[in-house]
Design the sequence.
């Protein structure tokens, strides 16, 4: 299967890409820089002019893109977008042996449906949400959480290696489940960092010295490395939208009920969803998740 259907090669493997926001645009650009032929579909063509200037081709529709691609990447906003564009709009137009890679943070049950629909067309689907934010996307250092068929994931490694490091985490839908678990951990880290910085300031500490002092100990984390200085410098430009964090935590809290299983008790995730939802209610849903500190500050009257 590692040679399925033929080894990936920049001069032969045709790449399709849908979803060119902060993350998707940077990821597509990396594949272009690596020499791959990339065809893009975007509802607003003006947003992909910078990628066309790097050599990207443009498709008129998802169906057109599917007909002219061997491997198709999607990086969309919500499960409803994935359902509409992938499951309802593109799968029926796939070429035999094509592979769909969905990088969207989506629902495990939907990923399974896409996998089954792809197999009916003699194709494969991989649910492969990512972690690492805008910096990881630009630098090719994303953690790629891949679910589906392990041999297909191995076959895709030449592409994944351009974007970061892929880890096969299980069958269809497991990549999405892994991303939800990832977001539960990231959200808890962001809350802890926000509260630590607010406390440090109230205690009269220099916040940068606080971060420098503790980052090598047990309090240190990748969240602190990525977002500590951004929080201190009030840089809330998004690497990932707060809207999406609310979506991801919501899926974690609801997934058991939707599958007819017992709902897990996740009190930390529930609290974090409320706090991120407060950001959205404050009109800050399009800010980066590091903006959570503003909610902690407001609670404390700042």
Sequence:
């Amino acid at each position: 299967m590692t040679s399925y259907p033929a080894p990936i090669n920049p001069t032969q493997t045709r790449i399709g890409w849908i979803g060119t926001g902060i993350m998707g645009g940077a990821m597509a650009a990396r594949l272009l820089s690596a020499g791959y032929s990339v065809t893009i579909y975007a509802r607003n063509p003006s947003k992909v002019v910078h990628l066309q200037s790097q050599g990207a081709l443009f498709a008129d529709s998802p169906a057109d893109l599917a007909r002219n691609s061997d491997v198709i990447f999607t990086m969309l906003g919500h499960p409803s977008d994935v359902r509409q564009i992938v499951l309802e709009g593109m799968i029926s137009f796939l070429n035999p042996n094509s592979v769909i890679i969905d990088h969207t943070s989506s629902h495990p049950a939907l990923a399974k449906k896409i996998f089954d629909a792809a197999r009916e067309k003699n194709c494969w689907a991989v649910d492969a949400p990512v972690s690492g934010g805008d910096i990881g996307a630009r630098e090719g250092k994303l953690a790629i959480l891949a679910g589906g068929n392990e041999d297909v994931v191995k076959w895709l490694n030449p592409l994944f290696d351009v974007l970061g490091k892929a880890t096969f985490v299980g069958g269809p839908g497991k990549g999405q489940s892994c991303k939800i678990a990832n977001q539960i951990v990231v959200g808890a880290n962001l809350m802890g960092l926000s509260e630590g910085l607010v406390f440090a300031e109230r205690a009269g500490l220099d916040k940068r010295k606080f971060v420098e002092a503790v980052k090598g100990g047990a309090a240190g984390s990748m969240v602190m490395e990525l977002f500590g200085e951004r929080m201190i410098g009030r840089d809330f430009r998004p690497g990932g939208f707060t809207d999406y964090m609310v979506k991801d935590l919501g899926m974690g809290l609801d997934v058991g009920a939707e599958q007819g299983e017992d709902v897990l008790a996740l009190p930390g995730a529930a609290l974090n969803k409320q706090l991120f939802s407060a950001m959205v209610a404050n009109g800050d849903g399009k800010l980066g998740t590091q903006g959570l500190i503003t909610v902690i500050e407001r609670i404390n009257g700042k």
